[in-house]
């Protein structure tokens, strides 16, 4: 008997509470179910899906009109059933009852237990099970009304991640505890009490193993649910494929209608026997260390000695294979000493009873070891550490011949005790190498390290010499923010945000200057005495040139940040060239003498003298003089002609002053 009409059986067991938010989304083994609304008889909608890492929304479903009859509803339920192995094929009675409730119900809450079943919600047009998804991937869903324009408001659900086989386990809170079982040689029946049941409980996965022979595997047992007193709920299954005289172990896992699993139940061990067929079962097999005899002591218990002829002892150094027969015990024996063992070596044992008609069910496998009690007195030696870009590499020499492994210790300060950092590093090499990714260590902390050996008697010896490692710093240096230029009397002041408030490991800043059409050049790199000030005064700027600045931060490990953004441009125009003053023109015997006051600007490159007459339109250059000269004699002047003179001062960069006012000569 395979019971699948879970919703009918549980419809009176659960009280439903209205959900506060919708649309709702739930993922499981068989897909992602989206419940669009609680409102029945609503408008048509379109469901769209977006896979994480992509940009295109894909329409996956558009709902049909509401079912118009019980037969229409039944057909929809039948078409949906193949999507999920936990969905049932509906009967006429169920379809009629459901359609009657649907016709009168305004919301899914009015459908009682039916309002929680994904198959029914999809058939009624208020939900959709999306099976075209991949386990382990993340999806977003959004809903738009099918008859509205594309720019109409959209309702978007929260993100759903499809669980894989590992993450499905434990998503369901329902648990099962075995109450009683029956076996009659033909089948096995077990009943469980369910805790924390939910309306969407879909069934149970029944796992079976042949005792001491096979691993657990799911079987197709018949199962169902029953109601008990005080709203208690029970589950049961019947294994009709169980063979006679076989010992089985059973575990059940509750699952909901989307395939999410609860925690496994307790494990039951059952022998499928008829009445009067009780066979010997080996129980309480133990392997203990007998140091006095240098042996492993095996002890066990027998449920009976009926039909028992002997008990064979099998041993291996591996759990899974390699077993060999090492001895045999009489039916009345319950102890065996294995003295052909080496100390501190693991061995695995299994007992195989022999009956009149062949070998019976073997025991479980147990492990044993002879302990050693040697004290640990030698410490590891020559501990060293090297620091790479992303790894700390340790090396040391073996402590003693019976060393089993090592523990690595560390501490963050000279006054704090060393604490275990690693688990047991199992090795018997003479030189040990061990690496730690630096990403596993906190930022900004320096350590001291040591190692200690664990011997075969599980005693920890003294610690090795200590080594030290420098603190790990962030991968990136914070880039300075908001550099600005402030004009000063003797230059400019460049100011930026104090980045040590963001990155406390910054040791200083480097200031770069950019002139027009040139690449930035390092202007100044701070020293420790600057104390990482977030300002720099540039007194080397020249008038007439355009400057901007960019900043980098650096740490003590010489790692630098990226360039900051550039400041606004700084420009101070050149001062004008001062014209000559006090010009005097006088006719002399040699010609015309032009004299002027000593120039105020002592950096003049030259003085240019122009002459013209009232009959000429343009002045003619008649002399170029050194910048410090204060007179000039025009020896080419012809007496009696009216001449006019003007002078221009010229800087070394070829900038000129304004011409002086023309001054004429008077002949006597």
Automatic annotation (TrEMBL):
<dbReference type="InterPro" id="IPR003961">
    <property type="entry name" value="FN3_dom"/>
</dbReference>
<feature type="domain" description="Fibronectin type-III">
    <location>
        <begin position="479"/>
        <end position="574"/>
    </location>
</feature>
<feature type="signal peptide">
    <location>
        <begin position="1"/>
        <end position="20"/>
    </location>
</feature>
<dbReference type="InterPro" id="IPR036116">
    <property type="entry name" value="FN3_sf"/>
</dbReference>
<protein>
    <recommendedName>
        <fullName>Fibronectin type-III domain-containing protein</fullName>
    </recommendedName>
</protein>
<dbReference type="InterPro" id="IPR013783">
    <property type="entry name" value="Ig-like_fold"/>
</dbReference>
<keyword id="KW-0732">Signal</keyword>
<feature type="domain" description="Fibronectin type-III">
    <location>
        <begin position="576"/>
        <end position="668"/>
    </location>
</feature>
């Amino acid at each position: 008997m395979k019971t699948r009409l879970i919703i009918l059986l549980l419809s009176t067991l659960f009280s439903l509470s209205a959900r506060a938010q919708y649309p709702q989304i739930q993922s499981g083994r068989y897909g992602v179910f989206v419940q669009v609304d609680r409102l029945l008889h609503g408008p048509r909608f379109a469901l769209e899906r977006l896979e994480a890492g992509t940009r295109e929304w894909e329409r996956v479903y558009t709902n049909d009109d509401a079912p118009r009859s019980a037969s229409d509803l039944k057909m929809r339920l039948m078409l949906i059933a193949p999507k999920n192995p936990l969905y049932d094929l509906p009967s006429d009675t169920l379809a009629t009852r459901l359609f009657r409730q649907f016709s009168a119900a305004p919301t899914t809450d009015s459908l009682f237990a039916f309002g929680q079943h994904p198959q029914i919600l999809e058939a009624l047009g208020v939900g959709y099970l999306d099976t075209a998804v991949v386990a382990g991937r993340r999806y977003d869903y959004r809903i738009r009304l099918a008859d509205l324009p594309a720019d109409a408001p959209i309702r978007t659900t929260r993100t759903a991640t499809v669980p894989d086989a590992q993450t499905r386990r434990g998503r369901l809170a329902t648990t099962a505890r075995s109450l009683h079982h029956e076996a009659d040689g033909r089948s096995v029946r077990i009943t469980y009490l369910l805790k924390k049941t939910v309306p969407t409980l879909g069934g149970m996965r029944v796992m079976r193993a042949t005792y001491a022979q096979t691993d657990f595997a799911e079987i197709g047992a018949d199962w169902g649910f029953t109601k008990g007193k005080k709203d208690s709920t029970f589950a049961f299954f019947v294994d009709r494929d169980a063979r006679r005289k076989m010992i089985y172990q059973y575990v059940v896992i509750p699952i909901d209608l989307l395939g999410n699993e609860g925690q496994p139940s307790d494990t039951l061990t059952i022998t499928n026997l008829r009445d009067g067929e009780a066979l010997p079962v080996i129980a309480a097999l133990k392997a203990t260390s007998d140091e006095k005899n240098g042996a492993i002591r095996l002890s066990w218990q027998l449920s009976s000695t009926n039909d028992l002829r002997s008990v064979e002892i099998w041993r291996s150094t591996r759990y899974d294979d390699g077993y060999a027969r090492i001895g045999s015990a009489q039916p009345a024996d319950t102890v065996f000493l294995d003295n052909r063992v080496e100390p501190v070596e693991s061995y695995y044992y299994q007992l195989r009873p022999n009956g009149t008609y062949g070998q019976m069910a073997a025991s479980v496998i147990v492990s044993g070891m002879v302990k050693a009690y040697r004290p640990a007195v030698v410490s590891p030696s020559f501990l060293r550490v090297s620091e790479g870009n992303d790894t700390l590499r340790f090396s040391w020499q073996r402590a003693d011949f019976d060393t089993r492994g090592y523990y690595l210790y560390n501490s963050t300060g000279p006054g704090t005790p060393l604490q275990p950092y690693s688990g047991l590093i199992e090795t018997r090499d003479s030189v040990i190498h061990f690496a730690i990714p630096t990403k596993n260590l906190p930022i900004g902390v320096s350590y001291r390290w040591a190692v200690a050996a664990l011997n075969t008697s599980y005693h920890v010896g003294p610690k090795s010499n200590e080594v030290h490692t420098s603190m790990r710093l962030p991968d990136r240096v914070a880039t300075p923010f908001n550099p600005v230029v402030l004009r000063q009397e003797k230059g400019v002041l460049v100011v930026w945000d104090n980045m040590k408030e963001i990155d406390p490991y910054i040791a200083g800043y480097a200031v770069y200057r950019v002139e027009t059409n040139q690449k930035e050049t390092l202007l100044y790199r701070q020293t420790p005495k600057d104390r990482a000030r977030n300002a720099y005064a540039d007194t080397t700027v020249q008038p007439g040139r355009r400057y901007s600045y960019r900043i980098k931060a650096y740490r003590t490990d010489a790692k630098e940040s990226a360039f900051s953004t550039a400041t606004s441009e700084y420009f101070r125009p050149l001062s004008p060239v001062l014209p000559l003053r006090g010009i005097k023109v006088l006719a002399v015997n040699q010609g015309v003498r032009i004299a002027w006051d000593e120039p105020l600007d002592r950096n003049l490159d030259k003085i240019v003298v122009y002459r013209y007459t009232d009959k000429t339109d343009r002045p003619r250059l008649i002399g170029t003089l050194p910048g410090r000269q204060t007179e000039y004699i025009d020896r080419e002047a012809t007496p009696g002609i009216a001449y006019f003179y003007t002078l221009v001062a010229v800087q070394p960069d070829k900038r000129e002053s304004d011409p002086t006012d023309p001054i004429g000569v008077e002949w006597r």
